[in-house]
C-alpha cells in the first residue's frame, strides 16, 4: 500500500483526554512510567522501531534546539510532560523557559528531573494548550514534542501556539500520525480506548493545522508513524 494511504481503522470515540491526564493517580502511574521510560534512549529507540517504524533518535536530536538559543530567548515547552526537553538546558543559559502542561503530576515529574541550576531557569505553568495563559507574541520558540496526539483538539492547540509566537517565531515538534503504519494505528486504538490519546490526525491534517494557524512550514517529514515539523510565524 502506498505510503500515506489509509486503511479501515476504527479508532473509537474520543474520550475526555484532558481529564485523564489531569488525574493525579494517572500521573503517578502511567505518567511516571512514561517519564522514566523516555530517559532510556536505547530501549525507546527499539520500541520506536517496533511500534512506530521510525528512529526516535530524530526526536531527541530535535530537542537539542533548546541548547542553542541565544541569550534573551523566550521558549514555551508544551506539553512539557516529564521535562525531558527542559533537562537539556545548559547551566547558566540566559533564557526565559516556560514548561507548561495540563497535568500537575507531569509538572511534578519535570521538576524532579531538573537540576537546581535548571530549576532556576524554568518557569512552570499548569494550563491547557488550548487556552495558553500568555499574551500574543510572547515567545521566540515553541517546542511541542510527543504531544499533539494526546490532545482533544490538535488544530486548536496549534492556533494557540501560533498566537503566542512572535513574528518570525518558530514551532518545532512531532506527533504520532494516523494512517502510516498499521501496527502504530493498532497501538493508537488502544491508547484512545485508555483515554491517553486524542484523535491525532494524518500528515495532511498536520499541514492543514499549521497553514490554518498562519504558520509557514520550513520542514515537514513523516518517518514511519511520526511526523516531524518546523514552522514559523
Automatic annotation (TrEMBL):
Residues 76-172 form the Methyltransferase type domain. Pfam families: Methyltransf_11. Keywords: Methyltransferase, Transferase. GO terms for molecular function: methyltransferase activity. One of its GO terms (biological process) is methylation. CDD domains: AdoMet_MTases (cd02440). This is Class I SAM-dependent methyltransferase. It comes from Mycolicibacter acidiphilus. The lineage of its organism: Bacteria, Bacillati, Actinomycetota, Actinomycetes, Mycobacteriales.
Amino acid at each position: 500500500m502506498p505510503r500515506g494511504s489509509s486503511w479501515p481503522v476504527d479508532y473509537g470515540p474520543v474520550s475526555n483526554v484532558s481529564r485523564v491526564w489531569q488525574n493525579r493517580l494517572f500521573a503517578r502511574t502511567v505518567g511516571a512510567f512514561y517519564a522514566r521510560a523516555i530517559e532510556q534512549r536505547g530501549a525507546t529507540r527499539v520500541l520506536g522501531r517496533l511500534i512506530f517504524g521510525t528512529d526516535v533518535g530524530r526526536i531527541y536530536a530535535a530537542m537539542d534546539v533548546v541548547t542553542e538559543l541565544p541569550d534573551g530567548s523566550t521558549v514555551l515547552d508544551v506539553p512539557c510532560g516529564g521535562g525531558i526537553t527542559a533537562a537539556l538546558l545548559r547551566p547558566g543559559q540566559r533564557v526565559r523557559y516556560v514548561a507548561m502542561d495540563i497535568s500537575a503530576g507531569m509538572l511534578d515529574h519535570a521538576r524532579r528531573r531538573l537540576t537546581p541550576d535548571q530549576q532556576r531557569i524554568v518557569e512552570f505553568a499548569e494550563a491547557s494548550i488550548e487556552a495558553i495563559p500568555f499574551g500574543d507574541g510572547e515567545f521566540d520558540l515553541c517546542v511541542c514534542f510527543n504531544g499533539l496526539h494526546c490532545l482533544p483538539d490538535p488544530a486548536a492547540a496549534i492556533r494557540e501556539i501560533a498566537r503566542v509566537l512572535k513574528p518570525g517565531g518558530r514551532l518545532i515538534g512531532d506527533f504520532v500520525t494516523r494512517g502510516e503504519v498499521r501496527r502504530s494505528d493498532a497501538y493508537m486504538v488502544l491508547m484512545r480506548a485508555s483515554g491517553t490519546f486524542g484523535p491525532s490526525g494524518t500528515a495532511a491534517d498536520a499541514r492543514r493545522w499549521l497553514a490554518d494557524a498562519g504558520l509557514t512550514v520550513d520542514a515537514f517529514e513523516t518517518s514511519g508513524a511520526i511526523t516531524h515539523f518546523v514552522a514559523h510565524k
